[in-house]
Amino acid sequence: MQTIRGFRDILPETIGLWQKVEKEATQLFEAFGFSEIRIPILEKTELFARSIGEATDIVEKEMYTFEDRKGDKLTLRPEATASIVRSYVQHKMYASDPVRKFFMTGPMFRRERPQKGRYRQFYQIDAEVFGIDSPYIDSQLILILHELFKRLGLTGLSAHINSLGCPDCRPAYQKALLEFLESKKETLCENCLRRMDKNPLRILDCKVIECKGALMDAPSTLDHLCPACTDHFETVKRTLEIQGVDFMVDKTLVRGLDYYTRTAWEIQTTTLGAQSAVAGGGRYDKLVAELGGPPTPAIGFAIGFDRLVEVLEQIEAPKEKPLDLFIVSLGDTAVEKAYLWSCELNRNNVRTELDFRGKSMKALMKRADKLKASYVLIAGENELAQNTVLLRNMATTEQVSLKLDHLVLDLIRIIKK
Ligand code: AMP
User: Fold this and answer.
1) What is the CATH number of domain 15-169+225-315?
2) How far is residue 310's CA from residue 273's CA, in Å, rounded to a whole number?
3) How far apart are CA 70 and CA 217, in angstroms?
4) According to the model, what pLDDT value does residue 256 have?
5) Phi, psi of 227 (to 5 degrees)
6) Residue 401 C-alpha to ligand 1 middle, in angstroms?
7) Helix, strand, coil % in the chain, rounded to nearest 5
8) How far apart are CA 186 and CA 248, in angstroms?
9) What is the pLDDT of residues 41-61, one digit of tens each?
10) Which of 49, 223, 330, 349 is 20–30 Å from 180 (CA)?
11) What are the residue ranges in the chain where pLDDT is below 70?
12) Each residue of 341-377: pLDDT tens digit?
């Protein structure tokens, strides 16, 4: 049996980097006032269709959707924002305090064409802020990403930022865009032509080479922003500059989902080839109301966890956790004693292993080496007959004889020194 195409196991050998990222991210989010939220993997299909948008790649062709036994249409979540908004509205969180900051980590599912950096089950680290329309929050979220990547030792990343405007300035922009698109109709792909009526902004995201070429001179949202959106974007840029966060304004950046307004961004790396985006985010001030809540500004981002780990793998090997102690036990009595000591040590956070297979001294010493044990405890029949054991420091090869009375306490004292 094999995993399904686009699905994969994250094996213990590589888990160290995943845990390191998760630890750094949690610490950072908590310092910035975020609380963890956990949401279901399965939701009603309608939630994603309504929020992400019918005319998007995700909803049109990438969702894992099926009917359950009662005929309800369900979908494996392709992203987290929609579910977190659903949760915010469902639990009326806005009633007690509209300002909420959440983070979460977990698997997402999209039926894309698998390749390096692109999987059908992939993981995201997600952050969302509700109830704050200030541009300082847009800036702060980009700063958090910058800080996290800095703490992880990553270089060569750049933030591409854009403003997508708001319902006040979008219509004028959409009109200018449609006029431009009409003039390019001959060159655009079928998908783009279909989207002209439904969602022309989406066309700017088309990956077909001919479309990309035709869209080079497309009008930019930035030239059509209303004064409020312009001010908002200026504050974001100014504060990022003051805080030394590198960014570039990218007028072609529209992001693949319908719900974005105002600031949108993507963090790109040069080290992953085609799949260059390691994180993306944006403001979605209308979504809470669209999903049945009171008008509430909101903004968030998602980090591609798999891709982030792939970038990290290029700069550091995952660290194995070294073993504190390996017990070499020779003879049945010794094995049982070793088992009891090892459990006691494990309960005291000393990483201890032993071997139950009755192997020779030589084989057991080899195993201790393989496990990179810092110490080896040798419990042979001769030693035990004298109520002692030998403790060997593998780095210095020094050996000391220890009495069996208070053995576990002595070991903890020596090993944890
Ligand atoms: P999005 O939710 O599309 O804005 O994606 C946010 C981030 O998730 C992207 O920048 C990628 O790093 C990551 N991502 C999206 N789709 C995939 C995928 N199929 N496989 C791996 N990572 C992905």
Assistant:
1) 3.30.930.10
2) 11
3) 50
4) 66
5) -55, -40
6) 57
7) 40, 25, 35
8) 32
9) 999 999 999 998 887 888 989
10) 49
11) 256-257
12) 999 999 999 999 999 998 999 999 999 999 999 999 9
- Cα separation of the two ends of the chain: 47
- Going 61 to 279 to 39 to 119, the CA torsion angle's sign is positive
What residues does ligand 1 touch, defined as CB less than 6 Å away? 79, 110, 112, 117-119, 122, 124, 256, 277-280, 302, 304, 306-307
Q: Among 4, 104, 113, 118, which is best to mutate for testing ligand 1, by the most ligand atoms less than 8 A from CB?
A: 118
Question: HSE-up of 193 (CA within 13 Å, CB side)?
Answer: 8
**What is the C-alpha separation between 309 and 269, in angstroms, rounded?**
12
Max Cα-Cα span within the chain: 95
Q: Best mutation site among 5, 7, 122, 207 for ligand 1, i.e. most ligand atoms within 8 A of its Cβ?
A: 122
Overall size of the chain counted in residues: 417
* 3-class SS of residue 210: helix
State the architecture of 323-412 in CATH terms. Answer: 3-Layer(aba) Sandwich (3.40)
Strand order of the β-sheet with 35-36 is: 35-36, 100-109, 121-130, 298-304, 277-283, 261-269, 157-163, 247-249
Same-fold call for 15-169+225-315 versus 323-412? no
Hey, where are the domains in the chain? Answer: 15-169+225-315, 323-412
| Ligand 1 centroid – CA 269 distance (Å) | 13
The Cα–Cα gap between 246 and 286 comes to 29
Q: What would the DSSP string read from start to end of 333-401?
A: HHHHHHHHHHHHHHHTT--EEE--S---HHHHHHHHHHTTEEEEEEE-HHHHHTTEEEEEETTT--EEE
Report yes or no on whether pTM surpasses 0.85.
Answer: yes
Collapsing DSSP to helix, strand or coil, 205 comes out as: coil
Query: Ligand 1: which of 10, 124, 125 to mutate, judged by most atoms within 8 Å of the beta carbon?
Result: 124
